[in-house]
Amino acid sequence: MRILFAEDERSLSRAVTALLEKNNYSVDPVYDGEEALAYLEAGNYDAVIMDIMMPKVDGLEALRRLRQQGNAIPVLLLTAKSEVADKVTGLDMGANDYLTKPFSTAELLARIRAMTRSQTGGQVTSRLTLGNITLDQATFELSSPPRQLSSGQQRISDDGAAAAQSPTAHSH
């Protein structure tokens, strides 16, 4: 999952980027709203985490422009502005969620999961499928459906021994 993280406070940006990457997110950090809008126009992101108080274009203005362009990408506002009126304004302008600083990393991760889950219609899927091969992004397990063996082929059992598959074999 690819996230754009717009936060002008560089130390916080580095810390959150490292946290997200450790949790298997791909993150592009940017440091102002103008840069965030440019990256969103050029890139393909699954979600945006955006500070409100940023230079050049603030988070609320960047959010307004995004929504005005018809971009429905999930947006989490991450900000020091903790007044109820600020939260209501951010949510009414089109943010999907709002988290105030300081915040718990576990809560941030849960809010990202919840926010991105809603864009898939409530179905959480961490699986990518191409043809008959599936990658589970949560466990990094690669799988494909078991193949049916025709007569005369051999099957390797879990202990490594080859077992002949014979259509005439009967158990007595």
Topology at a glance:
Elements: E1 2-6, H1 10-22, E2 26-30, H2 33-42, E3 47-50, H3 59-68, E4 75-79, H4 84-92, E5 97-100, H5 105-118, E6 127-130, E7 133-136, E8 141-143, E9 154-156, E10 162-164
Parallel strand pairs: 1-2, 1-3, 3-4, 4-5
Antiparallel strand pairs: 6-7, 7-8, 9-10
Helix pairs in contact: 2-3
Any overview of this molecule?
This protein has 172 residues and is of the alpha/beta class. The protein folds into 2 domains: 2-118, Rossmann fold (3-Layer(aba) Sandwich); 127-164, no CATH class. Helix content is 33%, strand content 23%. It has 5 helices and 10 strands, in the order βαβαβαβαβαβββββ. The chain has helices at 10-22, 33-42, 59-68, 84-92, 105-118, and strands at 2-6, 26-30, 47-50, 75-79, 97-100, 127-130, 133-136, 141-143, 154-156, 162-164. The strands form 3 sheets. The chain has a 5-stranded parallel sheet with strand order 2-1-3-4-5, with helices on both faces. A 3-stranded antiparallel sheet has the order 6-7-8, with no helix packed on it. Helix 2 packs parallel to helix 3 (59-68). The longest helix has 14 residues, at 105-118.
What does the radius of gyration come to? 24 Å
Q: Note the run of SSEs as H and E.
A: EHEHEHEHEHEEEEE
Helix run count: 5
* Proportion of residues in β-strands: 15-25%
Structural class: alpha/beta
- The CATH C-level class name of the largest domain: Alpha Beta
- Work out the count of structural domains: 2
How far apart the termini lie comes to 54 Å
Strand order of the largest sheet: 2-1-3-4-5
Mean pLDDT: 82
**How would you describe the shape?**
elongated
Q: Approximately how much helix is present in the residues?
A: 25-40%
Catalogue the unreliable spans.
120-125
CATH fold field value of the largest domain: Rossmann fold
Q: Supply the CATH architecture of the largest domain.
A: 3-Layer(aba) Sandwich
Largest sheet geometry: 5 strands, parallel
Total strand segments = 10
CATH superfamily of the largest domain: Response regulator
